[in-house]
Amino acid sequence: MKVMIVEDENFIALELERIAQEAGHQTIGPVSTVEQALAHAQRSDVALVDLSLSDGLSGAQLARRLIDRHRVDVIFVTGSPENVGHGIEGALDVISKPFTDERIANALSRAEERRRNFDSSKAAL
Prior knowledge:
This protein is of the alpha/beta class. Helices cover about 45% and strands about 20% of the residues.
């Protein structure tokens, strides 16, 4: 599965990238702005998205666009889970910082399973 890392804090982005790769996924990014994320959306299956990006508190709006327009599954990874707001609808999970490797890997595993089930149901039609 192709996982886009949308995080503006370099250390956290590198940790998310490491966890996703160790779980067997390809990573895209990290990217730190809405514009960068949208440029890579077509190549992504799932995105790990922070609420606060380099261009402001834009993570929830980005998530809506990724979900609605690009069919990218979104998992929020944020220090302020209470601020996810309207972006939560359609998101697969909200993970609080600090996070554990296991928490991120489990969320990615659920996303992969959901995508597999969706693809197999589409193929049956």
